[in-house]
Amino acid sequence: MFRRWFQRTTSAQAGSTGSDHLIDLREIVKTYQSSAGSFTALKGVSLQVDRGEFVAVIGKSGSGKSTLINMVTGIDRPSSGEVLVAGTAVHKLGEGQMSVWRGRTLGIIFQFFQLLPSLTVVENVMLPMDFCNMYRPSERRERAMALLEAVEMAENANKLPSAISGGQQQRVAIARALANDPPILIADEPTGNLDSRTAEAVFQLFERLVGQGKTIVMVTHDNDLARRATRSVIVADGEIVNQYLARALPRLSLDQLINVTRQLDRLSFQPGEPIVRRGAHADYFYIITKGKVEVLVDHPGGGELIAEVLGEGQYFGELGLLGDGTRRATVRAAHDNGLVEVVALDKGEFHALLAASEGTRTDVQRVAQQRLAASGA
Ligand SMILES: Nc1ncnc2c1ncn2[C@@H]1O[C@H](COP(=O)(O)OP(=O)(O)O)[C@@H](O)[C@H]1O
Ligand SMILES: [Mg+2]
Question: What is the third-level CATH fold of 20-240?
Answer without folding.
Answer: Rossmann fold (3.40.50)
